[in-house]
């Protein structure tokens, strides 16, 4: 017997509110927006959500999660109007992805630890995206440099180019030490007229090339 679907009246009301704002006779600003024009707002709202999560304030999290959710609904409504896809398509695609990538929950495979889950997830992604020939494929190049560095280092560890347990040239074990160290490096760069973001991105492009060369040699 199929379980009844739980209603989400507030979510339905939010969707209806957006549709009214974007409908003829609604809000001129909302009508004028495109996927491209909303990108900056999506980025800003995401960073505001990160701030709310780090502050631990529940009211702020509710507000900022709502702002991010609204961006998803906004993009889906624009796409629906253009006849490209709908919010239901977005939800159905995500459900299918989560079910297919969790066979230890929805099928008969086993993954007892988080590491087992990650390993299985990676293998499933390979099967789903055979066009990707490198572990660096699919990583957004426009990520902030520090976040991109963390992502690429993880990929370098995965293919064996770098040792995940090696501390590197500077062994920092506490975030309380890491923050001031990073700030000091940026301050030194600024004092010498250097662009820290650009410098790190240049190094990351070199690391990407090294990862691909290592993959080719395996």
Automatic annotation (TrEMBL):
<dbReference type="GO" id="GO:0046081">
    <property type="term" value="P:dUTP catabolic process"/>
</dbReference>
<dbReference type="GO" id="GO:0047429">
    <property type="term" value="F:nucleoside triphosphate diphosphatase activity"/>
</dbReference>
<dbReference type="GO" id="GO:0046052">
    <property type="term" value="P:UTP catabolic process"/>
</dbReference>
<dbReference type="GO" id="GO:0046076">
    <property type="term" value="P:dTTP catabolic process"/>
</dbReference>
<dbReference type="GO" id="GO:0046047">
    <property type="term" value="P:TTP catabolic process"/>
</dbReference>
<dbReference type="GO" id="GO:0006203">
    <property type="term" value="P:dGTP catabolic process"/>
</dbReference>
<dbReference type="Pfam" id="PF03819">
    <property type="entry name" value="MazG"/>
</dbReference>
<dbReference type="InterPro" id="IPR004518">
    <property type="entry name" value="MazG-like_dom"/>
</dbReference>
<feature type="domain" description="NTP pyrophosphohydrolase MazG-like">
    <location>
        <begin position="33"/>
        <end position="106"/>
    </location>
</feature>
<protein>
    <submittedName>
        <fullName>XTP/dITP diphosphohydrolase</fullName>
    </submittedName>
</protein>
<dbReference type="InterPro" id="IPR011551">
    <property type="entry name" value="NTP_PyrPHydrolase_MazG"/>
</dbReference>
<dbReference type="GO" id="GO:0006950">
    <property type="term" value="P:response to stress"/>
</dbReference>
<keyword id="KW-0378">Hydrolase</keyword>
<dbReference type="GO" id="GO:0046061">
    <property type="term" value="P:dATP catabolic process"/>
</dbReference>
<dbReference type="InterPro" id="IPR048015">
    <property type="entry name" value="NTP-PPase_MazG-like_N"/>
</dbReference>
């Amino acid at each position: 017997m199929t379980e009844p679907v739980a209603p989400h009246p507030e979510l339905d009301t939010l969707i209806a509110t957006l549709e009214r704002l974007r409908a003829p006779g609604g809000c001129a600003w909302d009508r004028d927006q495109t996927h491209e024009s909303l990108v900056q707002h999506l980025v800003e709202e995401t960073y505001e959500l990160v701030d709310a999560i780090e502050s631990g304030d529940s009211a702020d999290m509710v507000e900022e999660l709502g702002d991010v959710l609204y961006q998803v609904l906004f993009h889906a409504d624009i796409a629906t109007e253009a006849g490209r896809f709908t919010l239901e398509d977005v939800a159905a695609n995500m459900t299918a992805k989560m079910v297919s990538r969790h066979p230890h929950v929805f099928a008969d495979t086993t993954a007892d630890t988080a590491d087992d889950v990650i390993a299985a997830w990676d293998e499933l992604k390979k099967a789903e995206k055979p066009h990707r020939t490198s572990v660096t494929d699919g990583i957004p190049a426009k990520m902030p440099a520090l976040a991109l560095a963390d992502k690429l280092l993880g990929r370098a560890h995965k293919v064996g180019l770098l040792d995940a347990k090696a501390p590197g040239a500077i062994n920092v074990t506490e975030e309380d030490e890491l923050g001031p160290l990073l700030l000091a490096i940026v301050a030194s760069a600024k004092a010498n007229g250097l662009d820290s973001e650009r410098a790190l991105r240049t190094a990351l492009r070199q690391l990407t090339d090294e990862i691909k060369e290592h993959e080719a040699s395996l």
